[in-house]
């Protein structure tokens, strides 16, 4: 069986739920078709299985090596990266003007699922190149783009994002890297950046760094930050490559993603580092924010990828591993051993993993789809509407993707039992690799502050209102399905609880208890994420139930026994039954708790704020 | 500040909550006193800090090496182990008849906290020796005890538990290791055991294995299992040490606890392996069950230890690491950076870690205390009562200890941010080391089946009834405290919800939906665990509130501002305020969700049972 991505479920999300094939109605995606999309996904799966997956553990074991200022990636990564680059995967959804293929973003993300599930550490190299290329495309001068962008989109050169410094992580406004204007319009860059993913490596001949820095004389804080393209090797006027005073001084040793080099980078140690301003001076933070949605969605896709691989590996193991007898026969020692998937506790764990993974998949692809719709829209109003959906969804995608993905990896270890803890089996690596997703690209705490402090408050809650309207449109259809009425009721209660918390935050924000929304931003984000997933699964269940009823009709299955037979014998019926089961499981197990979680927030216990430092533990 | 165990909180649990000093009223513990106890704890802390902690990371990096049939533990472990052995720590709570010191078990567990927090991998060697020694003490012949037990309690020789086989993990009844009666009353043992912790190593000269095996002709399943002491080196009649055909054939490579050797052991490859029967033939499982409470509590203490160290490390980091400005001043770039403990989201994470750790501490020590009371009781009725409390508590201690401990480790990484993910800082190791606790000593799924299938059903729910009575006795006192009324109300609702699920299980168990209690056993255990922790914290809050009121009176602090001043300036007041804060946080954040979690179970969604295998994912 497949061990990376359940392609049937992926197709369900893309074509039956989101109907991405209809994106071809927009001029921007007129080249796009279902056939093309299917073909691309099939190729992505092949590449992921044949080249990425086989070097996932070797990359983990070998890691990156720092030797004389250079970084060697795991030897086995070179071939897989070459195949990826040759296939044009890096710029699948990018502008055809610079060598991209102009496909919808949601399709590129569906491909990312396969690569992420197979080998996240390897995918980071082109992933960061993609993010930095898009920045260059949007804010670089045409000269810069001519010089660097083609090669980046082709994967021949790579890119990074250089934000973090020793005292400026979440607090990016505190950064110290300096830029000095030079007479020729370029800037001299000087400073140290840490935790730079793929900052130095030997997969490509050149690396273009997108560096946040403060221009001399610029204001303190986030308002004085600019962003620069800083190539490791600069293309001179004569077209040669010249050293640009960019050095890597060391690597981090990490819990996971050993194959991805995490570098400390020094720019301008000898004051000879040239940077090219992107956009205008002091607009670096705004530019970063604009590019942030894609980067954060990419991180959410990491969580989805690990969850997907962890779930399918655990499922496969549960089908193959025989141990214990059925409870009905447990007292008879002669009874045959059964695959562990027959044990209720294992099935519960698998259903948790299944419904979580499928919910995350729908959430991520909805995020990408909204970005596509915003890009493709011709009317400004529609553009803004979809941009607003995306803005609201992205902190959920990033935070819930990483947290729930981690939880799924943890559960996979539990399904494997003792074998889950040993490196001979793949799941412990998933757990280690996944953990970083809750930290980088803005910690999940920062995502929560983004949601509560920025997204909720935007134009007096406009984003929430629009999202609730969109949900109501779909929900009104689902309500007609009598068989889902119990799930609808639980969902509606959960949504209402969440809306209550939203209002509670809005009120508290105006009082001297303005810290309460900050204190409970993360539990609120978690609640919103679960409600969003519950909604997406409910929506899926409604579609699946319609299909399942059609199959019952085709088989003249009118009573329960004959329907059970159809579900057990017909693969399509089994799939749709499984989709409904995911919704039932998640909504019954998770959304039933939404009211309690809302109450937990609105009880507004402020002990965490009131406790003196000595109260945490005597020093 | 302390980085392993909050000794003030530990003393609060031991002396103010459980009042373990009163154990000295029992003849069994007549030697025991508060002074002695304080001294022992102080020594444990010193040893843990000075010898265990410094070699925790080195042990992780070096790991164990398998060389020519022998296993070398990390070089740095030898000295620390020697100090531990010399100090007599292994047999602190064991019978003075065999060299032990006869202290209460709860005190030994409090010492374990320090060692577990400092270096769990190292502690496993004496920990397993202790478990196997107790088995030998209770079921070995006096000859066996004379020969082996003194040296084991002295830590000169070590011990293991050999249960798991390739096809017999959770399903221990399926084991294949064979025992053949020999004319001299000993047995010839033959079989393979896997995942044997500390199965072979060079810390001691000899290792005594406690091996489950089936005697020729014995019934299949669990009823035909016997248990044997199988020394690696057998003491011959002339007192010499002879090889006993016990070999280690390899080590597992694991996610964590690298310093603890996880061995594959072959017994009797040459049919020359001699084993000594413990107890009677075919009573191996009953004997194992009798010893299980202590072993499972030990695993729970692992989770507590990691949680405690992770919490204190994160707290220390949060006090030292400066980043970001207070929200009130965030828009002014000149505002000074503050330690991250000033940020509400960080405080919330710390409060989660604090309340969880303190709750786990109370839970573990209550478990140990009940075992002590059962041992010390002179009336049979009292013995049984306390044994029953322990029987009910142990699956909670083991499962919640490991799961919540893991969650605390995960949160510590989040507090550290990017630094939490790198091996330069200690928290990623806590996470890796902690994970195994949910798997070994009976997976947490098995703990849930033990709770639901065995403990709830014992004598028609007698254990639950007795526990509820004990809770009500304490609760009736807490209800008199007006300032805790909100917490009491949330607690009572949560308890009632849990009781409802218990009754629901009892009813379902008698219908053809008898699988429902199995399906939801783990969520039920989690709920019971949280309710138990909530109760223990509420109990603590009541004690703390009384002390705090006394301090207020002593300082003539009658209004809120003067009370706040006392709390900020007086360390005792800060501590008691922190205790109340833990209860407020946990009860408000966690127990408010109990009703929803109970509903999630009693909705009795059976999709996990009904879904066909193809519905999980098409093959």
From TrEMBL, chains A, B:
Pfam families xrefs: Acyl-CoA_dh_1, Acyl-CoA_dh_C, Acyl-CoA_dh_M, Acyl-CoA_dh_N
Enzyme class: oxidoreductase
EC number: 1.3.99.41
Residue intervals of the Acyl-CoA dehydrogenase/oxidase N-terminal domain: 38-156
Keywords assigned: FAD, Flavoprotein, Oxidoreductase
Keyword Mitochondrion applies: no
Residue ranges annotated for the Acyl-CoA dehydrogenase/oxidase C-terminal domain, each copy included: 326-451
SUPFAM superfamilies: Acyl-CoA dehydrogenase C-terminal domain-like, Acyl-CoA dehydrogenase NM domain-like
Annotated signal sequence range: none
Cross-referenced InterPro entries: Acyl-CoA_dh-like_C_dom, Acyl-CoA_Oxase/DH_mid-dom, Acyl-CoA_Oxase/DH_mid-dom_sf, AcylCo_DH-like_C, AcylCo_DH/oxidase_C, AcylCoA_DH/ox_N, AcylCoA_DH/ox_N_sf, AcylCoA_DH/oxidase_NM_dom_sf
Ranges for domain Acetyl-CoA dehydrogenase-like C-terminal: 481-612
Cofactor: FAD
Acyl-CoA oxidase/dehydrogenase middle domain location: 161-267
Reactions catalysed according to its record: 3-(methylsulfanyl)propanoyl-CoA + oxidized [electron-transfer flavoprotein] + H(+) = 3-(methylsulfanyl)acryloyl-CoA + reduced [electron-transfer flavoprotein]
Quaternary structure, from the entry: Homotetramer.
Similarity section: Belongs to the acyl-CoA dehydrogenase family.
Protein name per Swiss-Prot or TrEMBL: 3-methylmercaptopropionyl-CoA dehydrogenase
UniProt organism field: Syntrophobacter fumaroxidans (strain DSM 10017 / MPOB)
